Amino acid sequence: MYRSRVLAALLCALVLASSPALFAEHHETETNAYQRNVDFVAGRVVQLAEAIPAEAYGWRPMEGVRSVSEAIMHMAAANYFFAGRLGTPAPEGVDPQNMEQITDKAECVAALEASMKHIVAALGRVEDLDAAMDVFGREATAHDMVLIAVGHAHEHFGQLIAYARANQVVPPWSQ
Q1: Cβ distance 74 to 137 under 8 Å?
Q2: SS3 per residue for 21-70
Q3: Has residue 43 got a pLDDT over 70?
Q4: Mind listing the pLDDT tens digit for each residue in 95-127?
Q5: What pTM value is reported for the model?
Q6: How far lies 150's CA from each of 4, 119, 128, 169, in Å?
Q7: Residue 132 bridge partners (DSSP)
Q8: Which of 76, 94, 104, 170 is the most buried (most CB within 10 A)?
Q9: In 3-state terms, what secondary structure has residue 140?
């Protein structure tokens, strides 16, 4: 009986000692999954921005809705915003507040690509998904901000697919 208690205590100690390693492995896998997900969207959305003709960058589906260039630059600006909230500020010289003013196709594509690389890198640097933070005026965690960033990337990727198709552009990966 004494022997089984000692074995049980050793087993419990072993499990408790390995818990931080198990958590770290889970955390790394989870943040890597978010990073891979956004990296996938990054590749596709940049291809799409390149495929949309320059003359369509001013197109908007109706008055009061973002144009193609404004939607692209909104996505770019938000990538820098989310990265900053997650601890990776925008590079020097990048002003997310004024990005939607950019309308030139080449500048939009370059800015989008740079912002996608930036948010992907920022997601890889998140160390504590449980870290408390303010997210749009409410108590939340870094994990909440990561999910918002991932969802935002997908939302505007879908928007750009719709904009492209409305302008007779077939997404390159669908051809």
Answers
A1: no
A2: HHHHHHHHHHHHHHHHHHHHHHHHHHHHHHHCCHHHCCCCCCCCCCCHHH
A3: yes
A4: 999 999 999 999 999 999 999 999 999 999 999
A5: 0.82
A6: 49, 10, 17, 25
A7: 141
A8: 76
A9: strand
